[in-house]
Amino acid sequence: MAASRDSKKDEALALEERKVKSLEKIAASVDAIAYWLEDIDKTEWSERAQWYLSEFYEKFVKKD
Hints:
The chain has about 60 residues and is mainly alpha-helical. The protein has helices at about 1-40, 40-60. About 90% of the residues lie in helices and about 0% in strands.
């Protein structure tokens, strides 16, 4: 019985460690994207971003 509890605690601890590592990887990816967005030439991307946003709006947001 005690071994079972210890096993479940070990599994829960391992799961928590995996969650933390996953969140750290996600945070690093978001940080990299944020830096990339700061570095792009916004005037060059302005028209392209407007086009993509309008396409998204037309396909998914706009109600007929």
